[in-house]
Amino acid sequence: MSPNDVFDLLILVLLITCALAIARMKDLAAAVILFSVYSFALCLLWVHRGAPDVAMTEAAVGAGITAVLFFYTLARTGRREK
Predict the structure, then answer these.
(1) 81: which DSSP letter?
(2) Alpha helix (H) ranges present in 25-76?
(3) Which of the two residues, 1 and 15, has the higher pLDDT score?
(4) Nearest to 44 by CA among 74, 70, 12, 6
(5) In terms of C-beta density within 10 A (0-12 exposed, 13-18 middle, 19 or more buried), how is residue 80 classed?
C-alpha cells in the first residue's frame, strides 16, 4: 500500500466519520462546524487527487458560503433541535 493510498484512506475515514457525526448531532451549531470540517477534508482530497479547481470551489462554497448561510439561519431560528 503506497503512502498515497494511506492518505486517501485516512481522508475517506474522516469524511465518513464526520458525515455520521453530523447526522447524529442535536446541537445544530456544532453540526455546522463539523460540516465545515467535512468540506475542508473533501477539499484536501480534491487537491491530493490533482483537481485544485474543484478544491478551491469546495473551499469557497462548502466551507465558506454555506457555513455563513447556516449560521445566519441558526441566528434567526434556534440552536438546538427539538
Answers:
(1) -
(2) 28-48, 52-57, 66-76
(3) 15
(4) 12
(5) exposed
How many CB atoms sit inside 10 A of residue 48's CB?
A: 13
Distance CA 55, CA 2 (A): 23
Q: Which residues pair with 27 in a beta bridge?
A: 80
pLDDT of residue 31: 92
How much is the pTM? 0.85
Q: Where are the domains of the chain?
A: 3-76
pLDDT at residue 82 tops 70:
no
Asked if 42 and 62 count as a contact pair (C-beta separation under 8 A), the reply is yes
C-alpha closest to that of 58 among 72, 44, 73, 69: 44
pLDDT digits (tens, 9 = 90+) for 5-41: 999 999 999 999 999 999 999 889 999 999 999 999 9
